[in-house]
Fold this sequence. Notes:
- This protein has helices at 3-13, 16-35, 41-72, 77-89, 93-106, 111-123, 127-140, 145-157, 161-174, 180-191, 195-211, 215-234.
- By secondary structure, the protein is an all-alpha fold.
- Helix 4 (77-89) packs parallel to helix 6, helix 5 runs antiparallel to helix 6 (111-123) and helix 11 (195-211) packs antiparallel against helix 12 (215-234).
Amino acid sequence: MDKDELLERYEALGQESDFLAARPLFEAELREGDQHGQPDAELLRQYGYLLQCHGRIAIRQAIEAYERSMAVNPDDDQVRYMWIGAKAELEEDDHAVRLYRERVAAAPGDVRELRFLARAYLAARDFDAAREVIEDGLTLAPDDDALISDRAEVKAVRGDPEGALADWRRALELNPENLGPVYHSAFLLEREGRLPAAVESWQYIIDYCDARGWELTAAWPRKELQRLRELLARSPEPGQ
């Protein structure tokens, strides 16, 4: 079969063997086009679609693995957050929202379930609904670091960067082992043009990782730190 037939089969059947056969055929033609200085727009589009199909199939498989994990260990919170995120990537966030609305209704006052519902709404980008759930949860547990961190995300989206940064600082104080708020802060500070402060956030993450010997975990933060330092070096001095 040629690459077009393999792509059609992979889209329809999702068999990994078809993807593995199609990918090198596409890449060989792309390399040939690049060598002649004539990239083929249609070929690039088809290759991109092949990779997109592969990504969606892989995410679907991840969801199935998460669901099996939840069945074996229903007390693992992290896998539930990962499931919510994966469902959102497939634009199935409504499924997560429905599920956790039902679970909240069945367990009123359960802060854990409110955390999951808040995250489901955030993944669905329904920030008004997320804010209401977060406030309900914080009424029950004012020092819940996960809900405070989620509130920061809402504030950041709603144009309150200072409020968001304050919440992420508080979340880190409550749970110093969770670096999520520091990552979020670094991204927001860069978007706000506050590069020196963003550099400090990345340096905090790197120092934390270095102190624990987490070389691989620190690899990407080091790249981000270097990128921001290069941006700062190219930035004009105030008044220039």
